[in-house]
Write a structure and sequence with these properties.
alpha/beta, 136 residues
Length: 136
């Protein structure tokens, strides 16, 4: 998996993380670490560009959830305890649609997984980058 970072300016600054390849048990922590680094550097609004993401596993879903928690200022699940992290996802859905983390251009196979687990109701999903940046 490859992650590139760019900055966009709408009404407020938005950090764009473009994820390419597969987001799975081997790579999900890398995405979390990258988001944590950007957060520590001052990024509080992240747009995940998933246009080049070809596969997402349950571990990949955990990374999306973890980044959402980070941006909401909540404690992060223990990455070594995947089962509890997945349970935490169910409990966190009561938090509603995420305001500080949005998704851009998921491919059909990734969008299908997001729909299947209910994440399309949890995250705003956009196909136009400029429009997505403007919603922060």
């Amino acid at each position: 998996m490859e992650i590139t970072v760019s900055k966009e300016q709408g009404r407020i600054p938005v950090t764009v993380l473009r994820v390419a390849g597969q987001l799975d048990g081997q790579t999900y922590q890398h995405l979390i670490d990258k988001a944590c680094g950007e957060y520590e550097a001052g990024a509080h609004n992240i747009l995940l560009d998933l246009g080049a993401l070809t596969y997402i596993s349950s571990a990949g879903l955990v990374s999306l959830h973890t980044i959402a928690l980070l941006l909401r200022g909540e404690s992060l699940p223990d990455p070594e305890n995947g089962r509890n992290a997945l349970k935490s996802m169910d409990r966190s859905r009561d938090g509603g649609v995420q305001k500080n983390l949005k998704l851009l251009n998921p491919r059909a196979e990734v969008a299908s997984v997001l729909d299947m687990v209910g994440f399309s109701a949890f995250f705003e999903v956009y196909t136009d980058k400029r429009k997505a940046v403007g919603t922060f």
